[in-house]
Amino acid sequence: MTAGRYHLTLTAGGREMLHGWWASETVARSKFTAWVGRHGDRPQAHLTLTDEETDRTLTQWPDPQ
Question: Torsions phi, psi of 3, nearest 5?
Fold first, then answer.
């Protein structure tokens, strides 16, 4: 079984903590929201959802504006 196209990464305190891959963008975005709720209170938490097929960042938390 191969990893999915959509890659979610949680970094906290400058260290990569969690990774997840899903084939469905809808599922990956749902996981992103869940991870923000579950892990967003970690010191220096940063979540990134990327499309590995296009190498495009789909969303980040916190928003880097």
Answer: -70, 155
Residue 31 has φ and ψ, to the nearest 5°, of -65, -40
3 state DSSP class of 65: coil
Specify the pLDDT at position 1: 45
C-alpha torsion 64→61→19→3, nearest 10: -80
Q: What is the pTM of this model?
A: 0.90
Query: Positive or negative CA dihedral for 20, 24, 29, 47?
Result: positive
Strand, helix or coil at 38? helix
Tokens encoding 32: 């992103």
